[in-house]
Amino acid sequence: MLYPIATLASDKLQAVKDLEAEIGSPIVALAAVETASADLSQDKLDKLKSLEDELDVVLVAVRPS
Known about the structure:
43% of the residues lie in helices and 0% in strands. The chain has 65 residues and is an all-alpha fold. It folds into 2 domains: 1-34, no CATH class; 37-65, no CATH class. It is elongated and about 50 Å long.
């Protein structure tokens, strides 16, 4: 399961903004996406980790559907 930033309809976005104002803290809305991670060899995992380090991000290899 992955959780990218959610795309919200204007009424839902407003509900999040209202709650942010009420609690005094930013809120990030995430959406669940069903996926399975790719089965990578150690060499490929090392390459993935190297690029993560270079880009300062988290990368996830998933199985093609």
